[in-house]
Amino acid sequence: MSLSNKQLSVKCPTCKSTVDWVPENKFKPFCCDRCRLIDLGEWIFEEKRIPGESIELDLTDEDNFSINNYSK
Ligand SMILES: [Zn+2]
Fold first, then answer.
1. If you measure from the C-alpha of residue 4 to the centroid of ligand 1, how many angstroms do you get, rounded to a whole number?
2. 18: CATH
3. How far is the C-alpha of 25 from the C-alpha of 54, rounded, in Å?
4. Most confidently modeled of 13-17, 41-45, 61-65?
5. Number of domains the chain is built from
6. What's the 53 CA to ligand 1 centre distance in angstroms?
7. Which domain holds residue 16?
8. Spatial separation of the C-alpha atoms in residues 6 and 3, rounded to whole Å
9. Is this model's pTM higher than 0.85 or not?
10. CA distance 58 to 37
């Protein structure tokens, strides 16, 4: 395992700026709290716009919530 010395970075899903994947960045994969909230808001709107689908949102299941949010 040699990942510990490697500097990882991701692109902010909202504004596409480069975000260092470090423990200090509590908003990752977003660059800031604002981008994080924007993306969460869009995700909720998308879910509500799906026609004819029954929405099963279980926000107490955090693992499931994270997968749905980041797999698009
Ligand atoms: Zn951003």
1. 25
2. 3.30.50.10
3. 35
4. 13-17
5. 1
6. 30
7. 3-70
8. 5
9. no
10. 19
Q: How far is the CA of 9 from the centre of ligand 1 (A)?
A: 13
CA 54 – ligand 1 centroid, Å: 31
Ligand 1 centroid from CA 11, angstroms: 8
Average pLDDT over residues 46-61: 64
**Is 80 exceeded by the pLDDT of residue 72?**
no
**3-state SS string over 41-56?**
HHHHHHHHHCCCCCCC
- Ligand 1 midpoint to CA 69 (Å): 16
Tokens describing residue 12: 């902010």
For residue 53, pLDDT over 90 is answered with no
